[in-house]
Design goal:
Blueprint lengths: L7 E10 L5 H12 L2 E6 L5 E7 L1 H11 L7 E10 L7 E4 L1
Parallel strand pairs: 2-5
Antiparallel strand pairs: 1-3, 1-4, 2-3
Helix pairs in contact: 1-2
Length: about 100
């Protein structure tokens, strides 16, 4: 994947009923369609955390998807902070 030109990175936290509902798998599917790199994982506090690197437009599309999530999710809140982009080669689901 060509990540040249990826000048933005968001650290996203999603709260609500977001674990055990396919949220990580859904995130992996949408980021692959959008061309984003980074990772997603479940957090011990019940939230889902995402670090995503891409263009501003790609990341805003991901945040919009995160507000809904997969069909079994019930999202209460999505927050994100911009970070210095890292050099990810792919998108991974962390366990």
């Amino acid at each position: 994947m060509n990540t040249q030109g990826y000048t933005h990175q968001f650290y996203i936290t999603v709260t609500g009923k977001v674990q055990g509902v396919g949220y990580r798998a859904g995130t992996e599917e949408i980021v692959r369609r959008l061309g984003i790199v980074g990772w997603v994982r479940n957090s011990p506090d019940g939230s889902v955390q995402i670090t995503a690197t891409g263009t501003e437009e790609q990341l805003q599309a991901l945040v919009a998807w995160c507000r809904q999530g997969p069909s079994g999710a019930s999202v209460d809140h999505v927050s994100w902070d911009e970070q210095t982009p890292e050099s990810f080669r792919e998108f991974t689901v962390r366990r």
